[in-house]
# Entry
Amino acid sequence: MSLQARIEEVKTRIAAACGRAGRQAEEVQTIAVTKYVSLETTKAVLDEGLQHIGENRWQDVKPKWEALHDRGTWHFIGHLQTNKVKDVIGKFAYIHSLDRMSLAKEIDKQAAALGIQANCLLQVNISGEESKYGLQPEQVMEFASEVSTMKHIHIAGLMTMAPYEAEAEQTRPVFRGLRELRDRLNEQHIFPYALTELSMGMSGDFEVAIEEGATWIRLGTVLVGKEL
Ligand SMILES: *Cc1c(COP(=O)(O)O)cnc(C)c1O
# Structure
C-alpha cells in the first residue's frame, strides 16, 4: 500500500472512531512515528501534510531532525536517559516520557540554561506491566505536585502505553485510567493550568484510545509502514 493510501485509510478509521465517541476529528492529532522508516520516507510523510513527527532515540532521529526540523513539530516519545537530555532539549516541542524525578530535575536545569520552558507529558504505567517505563498511578499526584514547582517545565498532559499483545478492546481500561488520572489532576488543581493532552493509542489500539479521549495518537506501522 502506498503512503498516501495508508494515510487515507487511517484518517477514515480515526473519523469513524471519533463518530462513535461523539468527538470532532480535530480533537485528535496524529503523531507519525517515523522510527521504523528512512529519512526519505520521513520527508514524504511531511510532504503528505502530516505535521507531527514522533521518534524515540536521539541517535536514530538525529539525521532526520537535522534535515527536516524546520518543517514539523517534533515529539520525543521514547525512554529518555538523563545524560541524553542535553541532546534533545530545545529540539523537540514535546517530551512524552517524563517518568522520574532525576529526569525532571535535569530537564528543568537544561531548559533553564536555554531560557525556555520544556513541554513534557508525564508517562504513567497504567497497565502495571513490569517491562514498561512510567510512574505508578499512585505516585502521580505527589510527583506532579513537585514538578509543578519547576519553573522551566510545563506539563501538557499524560502519556501511556497499553500492553502490546493485548486485544484492542482489552486496552480500554488502561486508556480510561489515564483519562481519569488527568481529570483528577485537573480537579485538584495540581497545576495552575489545565492538563489537556492524553497521548495514547498506537497502531494496534488507536481506535479504542480515541473512544477513551486520546488527543494525540502515536502511529508508526499502520501509518508510515516499517522499512528498517
Ligand atoms: C514505536 C512507538 C509507537 C508506534 O508504534 P506502532 O505500533 O508501530 O504504531 C508509539 N509510541 C511509542 C512510545 C513508540 O515507541
